[in-house]
Structures are given as structure tokens and as C-alpha cells.
Write a structure and sequence with these properties.
This protein is 48% helix and 14% strand. It is of the alpha+beta class. It has a 5-stranded mixed sheet with strand order 2-1-3-4-5, sandwiched between helices. The chain has a 4-stranded mixed sheet with strand order 14-18-19-20. A 3-stranded antiparallel sheet has the order 15-16-17. It is elongated, with a radius of gyration of 36 Å. The N and C termini lie far apart (104 Å). 25% of the residues are buried. Bound molecules: zinc ion (ZN). The site of zinc ion has 7 residues, from loops.
Length: 633
């Protein structure tokens, strides 16, 4: 017996028996183990503690041991130990106390500081003695390994259950768990009928927005299940929105299928802002668990599959986000409505229609509003933004900017690390203050008041640091990635030339724009006949520009006056090809900003009646090209 470690000073303090199980199921099944844990009380008495000073903490029953934050029993233990009230902590195995290694080591430390002993069935340990510390450390490490196996087993267990269609998760609205655990249609007739109404509407219209509008017109709301902890699972009715209807149409459960693993979470793709693993939606063929005809359905599986195709077709070309795509509107994906603040979409015209695309605010419309919010042709807007962009990113300022950026980024990394450490420390101190406060006798008002004040102070500090941290993260967002940096260095030579180069694709131009511009806000409503443009630069500044809205009829483009004059002057002595070469060399561009071709030149000569001889390359193909450029007058 290691009784020589126990001294009267220990026995004058309390003996804590810490009882815990991991899950409610274990609490029921492992009666034996529970009894073993309670027997520790007797052991404490054997070791010399009077029964009145033996306390059993079993508040944690049914709570998992992976972190101490949610476990009041553990917190109470830690507090009392740190206040020096405890002479010995008894537990069944080290792993019962704290499966999370950091909690375990912290407790060992506290016990060491306050001179508290730790005991399990096999012995008594004094955390102040190096040998005992080592032994306790090994026990902690082992229990962490145990937790890992446990987690893996749980994870596999989940999948095993899911493969059989037995894993339970919150059911989508319209279904309830029957008495046998199987899925049943919601007994509420109104819920069932409303869902049927959504599917029926989509069958008729084939357009989600039309379904939403119809529901709104008829004053029909959509059922939903509350997922907040308050009122969890209860039924509420909500105004129909586009996203709610899409969610219903996308959910395979309504087609009678049990599906698990629709989203894939990969640890190496994390949100840069929240650090959470980002979800990637798997396509229907890749769902790891798919059991059709698993429960009563609202629609047939074939119809569900068809709906998915239809949804994809309707949406793929519309919702613009993420990486720049081909398409001629430069601001696609970064343009916002100055009237309602929503993201604007791009309406691309067919390629053969020689009209520029429009920026259009559709979100409200999709959600059933009467009209679209606003729309405008992209050309004058793009032109103004490009002008501002080329002006702002002159070669000189770019060269300086990259050097400055280097410095800024170095500082940012260092400061971020500092802030993280500060925050971690503050959080720890707050938790610590809370435990001390919780541990004090409420009768002892003076001490309790002081501890509460300290706890509040620590909490305020945490909030303040969190706010500063979030702000700093936002501020840091405009820093460039490595690829962007390289691109900046390359283009700092002569950006305008790169911009206009024929080899530069629209996609690349969009990337260039995005390097400097965070977003653009458009308001074509406040003042008739003009568009107010707000450019939000990634440097944090905002500039405003105003362009005229093109009047109807004025919308078609004109070949620059200078080029037309040159064509007229040269038409009688030179071939179309020679004229085109000459114009291009002089840096002149067609109405669409493109290099002149023999076709362009030929068209203008014939239009203005200055052509003298038939061009050598005139052919059928030229005729067809001419007809398509005929709007360029
Ligand atoms: Zn709007």
C-alpha cells in the first residue's frame, strides 16, 4: 500500500470520488462498473478519510469525456482541487477522469500545485513526485489512444448502420419516425398536402420561381421543422422562398430514398475564415448509401432524378459565383445591387446577337416579387470600371505596392500568431475564473462577488480579443495569394498593354480585375438616365463613378470616327487587307474593340459607297460574316 504518501494534511481535506461513464447506454449496461466506482468510496474510508469528508461526484454520468468544457462535474472537481479543498481524487481508471489529454494534464498540474493526491484501484499517486507524474502521464496518454479507437469505432458504426438504412437522423419535414423506428408520412394532412403542392407545381411550371410565386399568390406557407434547441423538432410555417423550395426538390427522401453521405467533408479543404471542413456535394451516382423504396414517397424516384436534371439546367448558367467564367460581362460574380444589396446576375445574350450582356438583380424576383429590381447593360459599366482599374494600377504604383505588400504580409502572419495566443490564454483564464466562481460557497458573498467580478472581467477580455481578431482577419483578407503576386509582378511591366492584348482572354481580364477590385455596386434607379457605380477596391478604398445609361437606339456601337475617315481615304488605292493592317498598326480598333479584319473594312466601304474594286478575298463566307456584323454601324 502506498499509504506513506497520505499524510494527515491530506486527510484533513476532502476525498473526491469521481464517477463517470461515457454514454447513457453505458450507464445502464455497465452496472457493474458503476458499482465498482462507488466502491471507491469505501476505499477512501479505508485510506483514512472520515465518511463525512468523502464526496462522490457523479454529475457527469451520461456525458462524454472528450472535453471538460461541458462537464460541470469535472469543473467542480478542478475548482475545488485548485482551491486546496481536496486531499485526494479517487477514480476507477485514469481514463474515466479525462479522456482529453489536455484536461488530464491540467488536472495533474493543479493537483501538483495544491498538493492533492490521485488514486485509482491500483495505487495512490502524488503528482509532485517525478515517478508518479510519469506514471500518471502514461495513463493519460493511454486513455487518449483509447478515445481515438473509440471514435473510429463509432464512426464505422455510423456507416454500418447507415448502410442498412438504420442510422437515425432528423427527418425532413413531412416524415416522422413510426413506433417501430421506420419512416412514416407526417400524420398532419396539411403538411402532406403542402408538400404535394410543391411537387405538383414544379411538375406544371418546371421553374422554381413560378412555384414560389404561385404559393405566394395563394397565401400558402411551407412547413418546416425547428432545429434550434428551443422547440426542437416542432412544426412551424414559413413564407415560401426560392431556397426552401429548391431544398425540398433536391431532397431524395421525398422520393422514398434513404441516403447517407450526400455531402463529403474533407479535412484539407477548409474555409479560410471559419476553419471548418468545407462540404462538397456529391453527385447522385456517388452517394455512398442510397436505398430506394425505403419508405413511403411523395414522388416517384424517376421523377426525382428528372427534377435534378431540370434544376441543374435551369441554374447552372444563372447563379454566378466563385471562379471567373467565360462570358463577356467583366464583373460577373462581383457585382451587387445598389438598391437592395443582393448579388446581381449576368444575363448573357446569345453569341450571334451582337448585344452586350446585362447586369440584372433577380433574387427578389426568384423569391416571388412582382418585378425585377433593376437591370442595365454591362457595356458602359464595364468601360468605366476598366478605366478606373487601369488608372489605379499604373506600373509604378504596382511595383511599389508589391514591395509594400511583402512587408505587410510578414507582419500579418506574426501578428496573427500573437493574437491567437492571446485569445487562447484569455479563454483559458475565463474558464478558470468561472470554475473558481462556481466553486465558492454562495453564502460567502464577499468572495463570491469578487470572483464574479473577476470572471466578468475575463469574459469581457475574451469578447474584446475575439472582436479584434475577427476585424484583423477581415483586414488581412485583401492580401494577395502567391499566384496573384506572381501575376502582379509580371503585369506591373505594362498593364494596359497586357489588358488590350489579343491573347488576353476575357477570363484573364476578369482575373486581373478581381485582383484589385473586391466588388462593384450598381444603382441605376436613384437618378434616371444614369448609373451610379461604386467600386470597392481590395485595398479598402471605395470610389464612385457615374455613367450615362445608353438611350434606346444609341445602344449599338459605332466604329470610331477616325477609323472611318482613314478607310474612306484609303479605299480607292488599297485593298481591304492593306487598310485593315494599316488601321491595326495605327492602334485603331473596331466598334467592339477588336482588331480590324478585311470583313470589317469591306463592310464599311460598301455601307458608305466608297469601295472601288472587288476585294480579292471576297467570298461567300465573307458575306455571311458581313450580315452578322451589320449592326455595327
Ligand atoms: Zn436589387
Amino acid at each position: 500500500m502506498a499509504t506513506e504518501k497520505i499524510q494527515s494534511a491530506h486527510q484533513e481535506r476532502i476525498a473526491f470520488v469521481y464517477v463517470r461513464q461515457s454514454t447513457p447506454l453505458q450507464v445502464i449496461e455497465n452496472r457493474e462498473s458503476t458499482e465498482r466506482q462507488y466502491r471507491l468510496r469505501e476505499r477512501a474510508i479505508e485510506l483514512g478519510w472520515p465518511p463525512s469528508r468523502v464526496e462522490v461526484i457523479d454529475e457527469d454520468q451520461g456525458r462524454s469525456g472528450s472535453t471538460a468544457a461541458h462537464r460541470t462535474g469535472f469543473q467542480r472537481l478542478a475548482t475545488d482541487v485548485s482551491l486546496g479543498k481536496v486531499g485526494i481524487v479517487l477514480m476507477l481508471e485514469a481514463s474515466r477522469l479525462a479522456r482529453n489529454n489536455s484536461d488530464w494534464y491540467r488536472l495533474m498540474e493543479i493537483c501538483g500545485v495544491s498538493g492533492t493526491l490521485i488514486a485509482d484501484e491500483s495505487g495512490v499517486y502524488n503528482p509532485r513526485e517525478p515517478n508518479d507524474r510519469l506514471l500518471l502521464g502514461v495513463k493519460g496518454t493511454l486513455s487518449e489512444a483509447e478515445l481515438f479507437t473509440l471514435r473510429t469505432r463509432l464512426y464505422e458504426g455510423r456507416w454500418n448502420k447507415a448502410r442498412k438504412g438504420l442510422l437515425r437522423f432528423p427527418l425532413p419535414v413531412g416524415y416522422v419516425h413510426g413506433a417501430d423506428g421506420a419512416w412514416a408520412l407526417d400524420p398532419d394532412t396539411q403538411v402532406r398536402e403542402r408538400l404535394a403542392c410543391v411537387f405538383e407545381g414544379y411538375r406544371r411550371h418546371g421553374v422554381v420561381r413560378a412555384v414560389v410565386r404561385e404559393l405566394k399568390e395563394q397565401g400558402l406557407e411551407l412547413p418546416a421543422r425547428v432545429i434550434a434547441s428551443e422547440g426542437y423538432g416542432s412544426l412551424v410555417w414559413k413564407a415560401p422562398t426560392l431556397s426552401a423550395v429548391i431544398r425540398i426538390l433536391h431532397h431524395p427522401a421525398y422520393a422514398g430514398a434513404y441516403v447517407y453521405g450526400r455531402s463529403e467533408y474533407s479535412a484539407d479543404r477548409r474555409s479560410p475564415k471559419t476553419g471548418k471542413a468545407s462540404a462538397h456535394v456529391r453527385s447522385l451516382e456517388q452517394w455512398p448509401v442510397k436505398i430506394t423504396a425505403h419508405h413511403p414517397a411523395y414522388i416517384r424516384w424517376e421523377e426525382y432524378v428528372k427534377n435534378q436534371e431540370r434544376l441543374r439546367e435551369n441554374w447552372s448558367h444563372d447563379e454566378s459565383r466563385g471562379a471567373p467564367r467565360e462570358g463577356r460581362a467583366l464583373l460577373q460574380g462581383i457585382v451587387y445591387c445598389g438598391v437592395c444589396g443582393r448579388k446581381m446576375s449576368v444575363q448573357d445574350r446569345a453569341a450571334r446577337e451582337n448585344r452586350s450582356p446585362s447586369y440584372i438583380c433577380l433574387k427578389g424576383y426568384h423569391d416571388g416579387d412582382e418585378k425585377i429590381c433593376q437591370s442595365m447593360t454591362s457595356r458602359p459599366v464595364d468601360a468605366a470600371v476598366v478605366e478606373a482599374f487601369l488608372g489605379a494600377v499604373s506600373p509604378l504604383s504596382l511595383g511599389v505596392a508589391t514591395r509594400v505588400l511583402d512587408q505587410v504580409e510578414q507582419d500579418l502572419i506574426a501578428r496573427r500568431r500573437q493574437r491567437e495566443l492571446q485569445l487562447e490564454q484569455a479563454r483559458y483564464e475565463a474558464r478558470w475564473a468561472e470554475r473558481q466562481y462556481n466553486g465558492v460557497d454562495p453564502e460567502n458573498r464577499l468572495v463570491a462577488g469578487e470572483l464574479e467580478r473577476r470572471w466578468n472581467e475575463k469574459l469581457e477580455r475574451v469578447v474584446e480579443l475575439e472582436r479584434a481578431y475577427a476585424q484583423a482577419e477581415r483586414d488581412a483578407e485583401w492580401s494577395l495569394t502567391k499566384e496573384e503576386r506572381t501575376a502582379v509582378a509580371e503585369m506591373s511591366q505594362d498593364l494596359p498593354a497586357i489588358w488590350r492584348a489579343e491573347t488576353t482572354t476575357v477570363r484573364e481580364r476578369k482575373q486581373l480585375i478581381r485582383m484589385a477590385i473586391e466588388s462593384v455596386q450598381l444603382d441605376g434607379v436613384r437618378e434616371a438616365g444614369q448609373i451610379e457605380i461604386q467600386i470597392h477596391w481590395r485595398s479598402g478604398t471605395v470610389t464612385e463613378h457615374i455613367v450615362k445609361r445608353p438611350a434606346p437606339g444609341e445602344s449599338s456601337l459605332k466604329t470610331p470616327e477616325e477609323a472611318v475617315e482613314q478607310i474612306h481615304a484609303m479605299a480607292r488605292r488599297s485593298s481591304y487587307e492593306e487598310i485593315a493592317t494599316h488601321l491595326n498598326r495605327a492602334g485603331l480598333r473596331s466598334a467592339f474593340g477588336r482588331r480590324f479584319t478585311t470583313q470589317h473594312v469591306g463592310y464599311i466601304c460598301r455601307r458608305d459607297g466608297v469601295a472601288k474594286r472587288k476585294p480579292r478575298h471576297a467570298s461567300k463566307s465573307e458575306e455571311s460574316v458581313n450580315s452578322s456584323t451589320s449592326k455595327e454601324n
